[in-house]
Amino acid sequence: MEAVRALAADWDRTNGDEVFPAERVAALHEVGALAGFVDVSSPERTDALVDVLRAIGGADLSLGRVFEGHVNAAQLVSAYGDDAQRRTLESDLEAGCVYGVWNTEPQPGLSIRQDGDGRWLLQGHKSFATGAGHLDRILVTARDASGGKQLVLVRIAGETARADNSGWQVRGMRGTCSGLFDFSDMPIGPEGMIGAPDVYETEPRFSAGAWRFTAVQLGAVEALVRHLRDHLVATGKGDDAIQRARFAACLTETRSAGLWVRRAAHLAEAQATEAIPFVLMTRGIVEGAGLKTMEAAARSVGTASFFAASRIDRITRDLGLYLRQPVPDQARDRAAAAWLEEDCWGDDRWW
């Protein structure tokens, strides 16, 4: 954790180029982060992953999105793969291979069809494909002949011609390179078929796993609070009561969000019955802290926060996009409906 924290502190000093963060991913491999979080079943490992995701998110949200997807993919292969697939995963991670998960797709969707004995071919595309053209292994969902959603692990290292990032023209998160990827006629063997059909959406792992990206987002909000505080101290604006009140609101909301994120992580990794509504509610709490802090930073710092070299500008642009996905209003609504039925806090229930 200390090695990641040191890297993140250095990265947070200036804005990097808005391209895929290959060098930073390699640095995470060098300190063991790519292979370090396949198993986070113990409370200590859960806490460690929370802190690593926060640190990376505070330094580079595009990197945080890539790293979170890598951890998700590695955990899915470990959970649903067979012994041989887990051994391959282990050797891949030791070699520094970068994994990811792509589920979103344009119609008619990605499909898989038989092509001889023990061989299959993929047909179709994935969209919003984080790291398109830059990852080594990708876990995708593909419809089989029976209509089931099969998890398929595909080797895509070097398949840059299949990636189309030309449409990824966005204000923030540009470095994720979340474009379109064409899988047409890519061959798959039995070693690429992960688990049984429809295992990907097994609950509570599928929905409660969203806690990981709330930790990445939280790290960015925490970084904004730090940069806002530094500006108030450096400029003397902290002597103004209005500025102090604004800063206090950001600080308390962000610290409170941190408590929700950590509890959400532990409930999710323990597969607690209340994990899903708790994680869904946590998403809205992190979003609220982020929106408040972005607005406060713009008001307190002023025009200087909109210059391209400003860390506040980069974090705000990236976080503004990251908080929009996926379907935050629906997540809050599902959470509220569940909490109306019963208190999902766990212990010390109010009803």
UniProtKB/TrEMBL annotation:
MF term (GO), any: oxidoreductase activity, acting on the CH-CH group of donors
Name of the protein described by the UniProt record: Acyl-CoA dehydrogenase
Species this protein is from: Sphingomonas taxi
InterPro entries the UniProt entry points to: Acyl-CoA_Oxase/DH_mid-dom_sf, AcylCo_DH-like_C, AcylCoA_DH/ox_N_sf, AcylCoA_DH/oxidase_NM_dom_sf, Mito_Isobutyryl-CoADH
Lineage: Bacteria, Pseudomonadati, Pseudomonadota, Alphaproteobacteria, Sphingomonadales
Domain of life of the source: Bacteria
